[in-house]
Amino acid sequence: TPTLPRTNSDNSQQTSKAQLSHTSSVRKKGVKDFEFGKTLGEGSYSTVVSARDRSNGREYAVKILDKKHIIKEKKVKYVNIEKNTLNKMNHPGIVRLYYTFQDPDSLYFVLDHAKNGELLTFIKKLGSFDLNCTQYYASQILSAIEYMHSQGVIHRDLKPENILLDDKMHVKVTDFGTAKILEQNADGEEDDRANSFVGTAEYVSPELLKEKAACKSSDFWALGCIIYQLIAGRPPFKGTNEYRTFQRIVNLEYSFPDGFPPIAKDLVQKLLVLNPSERLGSAGKGGVERLKAHSFFQGIDWDALWQQPAPRLL
Ligand SMILES: Nc1ncnc2c1ncn2[C@@H]1O[C@H](COP(=O)(O)OP(=O)(O)OP(=O)(O)O)[C@@H](O)[C@H]1O
Ligand SMILES: O=C(O)[C@@H]1CCC(=O)N(CCc2ccc(Cl)cc2)[C@H]1c1ccccc1Cl
After folding, report:
1. Ligand 1 atom at shortest distance from the alpha carbon of 46
2. Which of 33, 105, 157, 219 does the annotation list as catalytic?
3. Runs of H (alpha helix) within the chain
4. For residue range 237-247, what is the model confidence (pLDDT) as tens digits?
5. What's the helix, strand, coil split of the chain in %, to 5?
6. Which of 147, 158, 199, 205 qualifies as a FRET site for 249, CA 20 to 30 Å off?
7. Is 157 assigned a catalytic role?
8. Given the CA of residue 71, which atom of ligand 2 is nearest to it?
9. Is the confidence metric ipTM above 0.85 for this complex?
10. Handedness of CA 296, 299, 300, 303 (dihedral sign)
């Protein structure tokens, strides 16, 4: 019997004989299936272009990677990590990967189109968020972190540039090329240390700088930096160069501007803790449930989070 063609890129099980009779509906997508529109942005190794599926009019963001450039820059590993982590993700707060395909020159990732772009743009435009808006965005980011950790994935590079917003101004976390998939070791325990990669200076955790090893708590450190930045309008650790920024991080050199809401200050102080096991959210400190129970998130209905309309950004 002929080898049955695989269905789309989520490596779902082989198509059954019955399904084969409708091959048209599960045929692998390719470049020709999409009408490409405007460029949404450029990365170091990628271009993101809006695209419409010709068969149903659905809109996507297609991330196009140039193979020669990837190979020259030795980033093939990151491409596989991005694909393998995104394939595991299925959560309203995380950019969805629908299809992947390639042609001789490029790789294509068909993703949710987050129409309102990066959270960073709004921080720059508004200067800072009020407490209600900060609480809303922080809770959606935390919900996405909780989910990816439950799938054994550490993001490792959370920052306002990687937090996109869709047309309903809901959070869509992206950029999983530098994520870490925690392997299950023999007795099913996760080995909780991931090594080698260092994130973006202002948001990198002290353990990554000192022991070159990130853990789930490293994402909670980044959340602390993001919450601080939403309210203060700038990240807590910012030196005149990367080295000085790192020095401030490992020495926990930061302070709160006047008027920083006490409830937010209490939470940030419990996240920006040098020892990852002492950080709120870490397994030893009651895990993510204890973090979600912090009074900063009082009033958040975690089960209805994604049905809530976004607060007007004032
Ligand atoms: N799913 C998406 N929807 C809308 N815009 C997107 C989407 N993904 C990326 N973009 C935008 O396209 C630009 C390029 O994103 P991309 O992920 O290719 O590179 P990057 O991660 O920003 O850069 P680098 O690869 O250097 O880290 C970014 O500015 C981002 O805002
Ligand atoms: O992992 C997969 O699903 C396939 C497997 C078959 C395949 O050839 N590719 C592309 C592998 C690849 C990765 C990087 C470069 Cl620069 C070139 C080819 C993979 C691929 C195809 C499309 C988009 C991304 C990827 Cl990793």
Report:
1. 18
2. 157
3. 17-20, 23-26, 67-72, 76-88, 119-126, 131-150, 206-211, 216-232, 242-250, 262-271, 287-292
4. 999 999 999 99
5. 40, 20, 45
6. 147
7. yes
8. 16
9. yes
10. positive
